[in-house]
Amino acid sequence: MKKFLALALAALMLVALVGCSSSETPSTGGTEGEDTTEVANNQKPLIWFNRQPSNSTTGELDAAALNFNENTYYVGFDANQGAELQGQMVLDYINNNIDGLDRNGDGVIGYVLAIGDIGHNDSIARTRGVRRALGTAVGDEGTEDSTPVGTNTDGTSTYVKDGEITVNGTTYIVRELASQEMKNATGATWDAATAGNAISTWSASFGDQIDLVISNNDGMGMAMFTGWSKDNGVPTFGYDANADAVAAIADGYGGTISQHADVQAYLTLRLVRNILDGVDINTGIATADDAGNTLSDDVYYYDEANRSYYALNVAVTEENYKDFLDSTVPYAPVSNQLDAEAHPTKNVWLNIYNSADNFLSATYQPLLQNYDDILNLNVEYVGGDGQNESAIVNRLGNPSQYDAFCINMVKTDNAASYTAVLNQ
Q: CA-to-CA distance for 165 and 212, rounded, in angstroms?
């Protein structure tokens, strides 16, 4: 009898041990002290964000990178919708503030344009959006020429044409006087210091021919605003709704575009959380999670074909800028803390392509750092210099210690530099 009881007890213990070591939905990695099933690095969640894997010359999306594994997604914003908004914002300003806008009275509304990165889809879209709205674009809608003109004070450039606008019965020519890619000597693009130098050169050359200053982002826009246009009363328009630019609207900054960085940052980490939890990918997005977090469809949409989540943009002007003064506050509908037992801590590797980029360092990363606490994610933030991809890739030396990866490339062409490491 004793022998039978001993055998029965041993059998029960064996069953219990087997039950503890198996799971219907194996975890991808785990926290310290947790018994988990090992997952290959190339099967772990991979979220591209801010810079969509694509050909920097043609803009064609990199399908291989976007479909690297079943847990790969992209998070960004609707570049074309935002570009259209920026162009419309500038056009509305002209229509509403025409008196005194033509500073030298020559009948030409002249503008200068700071271009961030000629190979970046967002920069291309914003340049096209402004030119389209102002009637200066050359080419078919959606494929207009986005080439910098250099100098075009005589209106003879083949990259743009003179536009026309009629306000209060008076017709004005609209001319892109000058534009250039803001790339510094070491290769970093979207460079604010280069934009500051450019406006010094342009203002010395063109003076009161410049009636508007337009920029692909607020970092460059603010460099030109503080360096020249503020003191000369020339309205300046940017993009990103950085805190300093929003505050500067009170001092004459013409306006900016919020790309809903609060929604983008949330989506970047929310997708990681959902994949690691083994729940539906739209939990806490289209449908509420167990803490009540959810997004409405007027702030984002999902492009299933390209596995991409896009935040929608909002124009920020003197009418509403006070609502956007703090750009690092989490979006209220998705700011509820997740329970740590139901959603245990996981480790995430995340890089910022350029730690000196104003939008990424002063807006996006602080938002990520707020959301990583809310979503119980232990994120290692790696900052790049905006120039050297390999210096960032080399810091992904031991991917096995992470449960997921969020990647912001220096160049949109370089996705394979990262996936090669995960495939090793």
A: 14
**What does R_g of the chain's alpha carbons equal in angstroms?**
25
Question: Do 75 and 368 touch, CB atoms closer than 8 A?
Answer: no
CB 229 within 8 A of CB 213: yes
Whose CA is closest to 123, among 355, 62, 109, 131?
131
* Straight-line distance from the first to the last Cα atom of the chain, in angstroms, rounded to the nearest whole number: 56
Is the pLDDT assigned to residue 7 strictly greater than 50?
A: no
Question: Nearest to residue 35, comparing CAs of 17, 19, 45, 20?
Answer: 20
**Using one digit for the tens of pLDDT, what is the confidence trace for 25-80?**
334 444 443 434 589 999 999 999 999 999 988 879 999 999 999 999 999 999 89
Domains of the chain, start order: 41-78+260-314+329-412 (no CATH), 98-234 (3.40.50.2300)
Query: Is 372 in contact with 340 (CB distance < 8 Å)?
Result: no
What's the CA gap between 212 and 100, in Å, rounded?
12
Coil, helix or strand at residue 219: helix
Q: Specify the amino acid at residue 17.
A: L
Average pLDDT, the chain: 91
Identify the pLDDT of residue 270.
98
Nearest CA among 238, 409, 312, 396 for reference residue 78: 312
Given a contact cutoff of 8 angstroms between Cβ atoms, the answer to whether 384 and 414 are in contact is no
What stretches of 291-360 adopt beta strand conformation (E)? 300-303, 308-311, 314-316, 346-352
Per residue in 123-171, pLDDT tens?
999 999 999 999 999 999 989 999 999 999 999 999 999 999 999 999 9
- Grouping H, G, I as helix, E, B as strand and the rest as coil, residue 419 is helix
